Amino acid sequence: MPFAPLLLAALVATPDAGPPRFPADAELRDVFGNRVTLGEAIGEATEEGAPEAKAVVVAFVGTECPLVQITAPRFRAVAEEGRKNGVRVVLIDSNRQDSLSDLAEFRKAHELEAAGVPVLKDPGNVLADRLKAERTPEVFVFGPVREFGLALQYQGRISDQYGVGYARDSATRDDFGLALASVLKGEKVELPRTEVVGCKIGRVHEADPNATVTWATGAGDKPGAAAVIYENCASCHRPGEAAPFALLDYEEAAGWGPMLAEVVSENRMPPWYADPAHGTFSNDARLSAEEKETLLTWVKAGCPEGDPSEAPEPPTFAEGWRIGEPDLVVPMADVPSDIPADGVIQYRYFRADPGFKEDKYIVAAEPRPGNAEVVHHIIVRVLPPGEQRKINPGDALIGYAPGLPPMQLKPGQAYKIEAGSQFLFEMHYTANGRATTDLSRVGLKFLDPDDVPSDGVGGVKNLSLVKSEAVMTHRFEIPPRAKSHEVVASRKAPGDFTLLALTPHMHYRGASFKYELTTPNGETRTLLDVPAYDFNWQLRYDLEEPIRVKKGSTITCTATYDNSAGNPHNPDPTDTVRWGDQSDEEMMIGFLLIALD
Known about the structure:
Blueprint: H1 6-9, E1 27-29, E2 35-37, H2 38-45, E3 55-61, H3 66-82, E4 87-93, H4 100-109, E5 119-121, H5 126-131, E6 135-136, E7 138-145, E8 149-156, E9 162-163, E10 166-167, H6 175-185, E11 199-200, H7 225-232, H8 250-255, H9 257-265, H10 289-300, E12 328-331, E13 337-339, E14 348-352, E15 360-368, E16 375-383, E17 396-400, E18 407-408, E19 413-417, E20 422-429, E21 436-438, E22 441-446, E23 464-472, E24 485-492, E25 497-505, E26 510-518, E27 524-530, E28 541-549, E29 554-561, E30 589-596
């Protein structure tokens, strides 16, 4: 059989020249805390009389990494299908923040014990260091090599189906599967090393004893890492919310420290995509330069804890509805919707009748996912009477995305919903590796009955009506493989109004989005520029200072789309893309939240 390439030989030190050998002597712990070597784990995983291992798959995992959750069924399937062919699969967790009980829960949730897949703890990330593993999920395939026994023949990703922020219906290249098949055939692995996309392993690092920034305190009188994380991250990164892991205690945050540094330095977190050169927004989620420096300095110093007694107390959050107890809660359906374990899930639409016998005036609205682990975003639309079969994107009431605040209008403002209207829930789900269900809902608070106008706008209380409008066009075609295709839509203001918020909406091929306002005298200003649109974050941009828009003004929206193969979100670069409700089709909508005088 062929030798593994010399590139891999440099990855793990071995006593003799040649490819890295299977580290059978690596000491690990099972979910009960018992000592077990990697070699013993492989032996315990085999059935009596099973053939000698022809291939061993060692995969590094983390119990909270989203890419691990969605790919865990693959490891189970490989173990079940490969046992008769001598394939052994072992999962290794080297994260300092993952406990043995976390591993036991992970093993049970993905039915790995029944499949004969050991899930082992790597204390002090010794095995991860030895194999130079960096991320989860990262796969190592060992196969027989003459004179060396089991030796490393593949290291890298599973496939290109899932990545940070994107998912495909199927892989265009199954690197792990191809490598394993080659090893079992005794053939050379065509691509022995691939780049891994995923969560960084939460290693134990020696902390700098002289660090000026710790978890507890910062340099001088500045806040430490805990204060920055509590202020900017904890609203989502806490139990019961959409983020995949919590950041409310030192050990958890220190384990995620390297990943935190990566996403902060690359401006992936906190999610915010508005160009600061245009507009000021009250919900701007960006870290300040000082906050960034605090976090990056802390991670670079090895995530020191400092004096725990000096650390701030974790924040507390109101349980339940952020708008307070709703006057009415409307579920999207009578029964939960089934969510598959994997794959790309097309948009789902649910009609719900709130039973309004009279006009209603909404002062607060909050969508809440029934299962935050799989709800990507929600848009709740209002279908007025007589338009029950027509979806008008301008009739959006409120949206949900992780981190997006609910709608809470100012005193004297209300959103009017006509009697007989229905709600349309637009639901976008993302699979997480386990079949589950969801029953999302929207909570509403109504205007005090004493303040309801008797004759519409300007009634007894001179109410200002808030509504959703849209600048949009259905008429576009995005050519195959177009790298930067521009679509423009404009709309004239029919009367005076106050602009409150802007929400761009596109799908997988959306690349950038810009709002511009041209006044009746011809002056043009940019209201919002999103140069790098991200479909994963359906953000609303709330204006710090609402803008008065005069009758005869024009709002123009310019969207660009990337239909090239270089767009990892792109379902099919060979397709001519047109308007459609599903995420593999496209939309071009610039939502406007406005207040009418």
